[in-house]
Amino acid sequence: MLWLALHFHSLSLEVFSRGAAVPEPLAVVEKQGGRTWVVACNDVAEACGVRVGMAASAAQALADDLIVRRRDLSAEQESLAGLAVWAGRFTPSVSLDPPAGLLLEISTCLSLHRGLANLLKQARCGVGEMGYAATMACAPSSHGAWLLAKAGIEKAIRDPARLEKIIVALPVTLLDQPSTVLEGLEKIGAQTLGDCLHLPRGGIARRFGQALLDELDLVLGRLPEARAFFAPPASFERSLELPAPVHDAEALQFAARRLLPELEGYLTLRQAGVQELELVCRHERRNNTVIKLGFAKPTRDAGRIQLLLRETLGRTRLEAPVHTLVLRASLVLPLSASSADLFQKSREADGDLLLERLRIRLGKDAVYGIETAADHRPERAWRPARGPKRAAEANRHRPLWLLPKPLPCHDGRLKLTSGPERIESGWWDGGDVARDYYVAEDRNGAQLWVYCDRVSGEWYVHGVFA
Amino acid sequence: MTAALKSVLQHPGIWRGNQRAQTAEDALPTGFAALDELLPGGGWPRGALTEVLLARQGIGELRLLTPTLARLSEADGWLAWVAPPYVPYAAALAAVGIDLKRLVVAKPQSAADAWWTAEQALRSGACGALLAWLRAADERRMRRLQLAAETGHTWGVLFRHARAAQDRSPAALRLLLEPATEGLAVSILKRRGGPVSKPVVVALPQAGVARRTRRAAPVLSLVHS
């Protein structure tokens, strides 16, 4: 077993700040005992003199433009769940350690990610892209890895003996025990885990309960551990609260990008691709703006999604400032593993991307394929096609150009070169035609497809043999 | 001729006035031997712009291209038709062997969008060929298209009115089409590697013939009331 622990030490701040490109002074406060205290603040706020443990009013006095937010535990929980979804891109065995920890069992997926060093690099990159920060550590036991991560010791340890050597120097305050136990340990002079391990086990169990012993054993991997793994949600919908209302699409794009790694993780876990995405912009006292993104084929490539997002947002005019952004995968379809991408010709992938880009700028209906339709009436014998299939009933007697509407023919010097072909059809749906079609040549040498309406006897041009 | 001179003349960088240019650029055979003979590399230039100038539609300008389009549609890559003047007719396209799965039509609202679309299609490298009917051409826009075609290594065909024949153009190949009794007369206004003086007449497949005309007198007088 090899566990990777991620400790998101600034999660309470990041749930508010990660949507902003430029950090602004921010402090998160919590009400305790009738007063409001600063429980976390970012570097910018710290530079103004704000400190953790300060009264909220004092912090506000130090920095005028300080953004003060009440700690939002449910947002943190949601963020952690989002992170777990993202972590699904590495391994299906992801376990939550609320309020700010993730534990990943990675021994089985190392070769998939080309080694531990590479996996750690990818994880660090991904965490940064989403606007979080984490300390990471690896150890043979999940509790061990978690202790290292919490202590800020960013090491990858595979050998249990080496783990023990490092663990013994850690302070007991890192343990997940009630404060009475921690105080008791301090009273008897046990400051590090090493001190605890030297004490007789029977005595510890009597004095502090079996729970402390069990935790120590779990850290050292002496007890088998049972962890509940995270089950990914059935649908993908993630919201991101923006620190300040945003008016320009550029800043919105930055925020939306924060959510893409989670989407990618979700799609990897589900072995699926997204075909339709919705970006919902929530405004104050206004209806939401919904921006839809459609893909030619299901995809899970964050780079591609990002490209389309950029182009779409570049063409979107926001009517009001946005305070919250929601990314929703509205159509998720199974994608047959990554081997599909491996053998797929790159030109085909480029082709899908081209169509998506054209559709964004020109509109959905302005870019289409064509196919034949089973109808004798020439104007109904073709139709725009959207899916991958095309009906293609070849007919050698048809012109390459069809006029969108038959034009009355005033030219008296047409030379009929072949025909007639009689077409009588459509009496059942009111669009009945009775026509004799000819190929004709006009005096400029152009080949036309003309017909004589058998009801009115008038002549029309209906196509061009280009 | 001395041996030394011969070896110099064999150098690929040397072009002699009496031969057509040997281009490194690969060419797409047109399907008409008489035309291939005159085109550098023996066909349509891939990765460059081809300008087709004609006074009016319907003289066989598409039939000149369909053999190449049909062959390109066997490979992957789109055949993009940007801002066609009429409806590309599915049954006829299928009849000349074009795989409709490869065909995509774009109908931009404005001229600016149409130029943009053509450029994207050429640049992406996702198209085997781009056919475009664009208005408001100027040299800057044309140059952009030519560069995009080079970048995407795509054959770009631009249909323009014959009166543009006098304009300067960055296109690698410029053809002027005129109807002829036995097909289509193709004059090469510009090609890589020197001018051609005489137009070549290309025998196109006949348009829509299948049925014999039953009438003896083919001349009809259409008098519109």
What report would you give on this structure?
The complex is a heterodimer of chains A (466) and B (225). Chain A is elongated and about 115 Å long. With 466 residues, chain A is of the alpha+beta class. Chain A has helices at residues 11-17, 43-47, 56-62, 73-87, 116-129, 142-151, 160-167, 179-187, 193-198, 201-208, 210-219, 249-270, 302-314, 339-343, 346-362, and strands at residues 3-7, 26-32, 35-41, 67-70, 94-97, 101-105, 135-139, 237-246, 272-283, 289-299, 322-334, 367-372, 382-385, 401-408, 415-425, 433-441, 447-453, 459-464. In chain A, strands 14-18-17-16-15 form a five-stranded antiparallel sheet, with no helix packed on it. Chain A has a four-stranded antiparallel sheet with strand order 5-6-1-7, sandwiched between helices. Chain A has a four-stranded antiparallel sheet with strand order 8-11-9-10. Chain A folds into four domains: 3-24 and 65-219, Alpha-Beta Plaits; 27-64, no CATH class; 237-364, Dna Ligase, domain 1, CATH 3.30.1490; 396-464, no CATH class. Chain B has one domain: P-loop containing nucleotide triphosphate hydrolases (Rossmann fold, 3-Layer(aba) Sandwich). In chain B, 24% of the residues lie in helices and 24% in strands. In chain B, the strands form two sheets. Chain B has an eight-stranded mixed sheet. The chains are: A alpha+beta (466), B alpha/beta (225). Chains A and B meet through α15, β12, β13, β14 and β15 of A and β5, α4, β6, α5 and β9 of B.
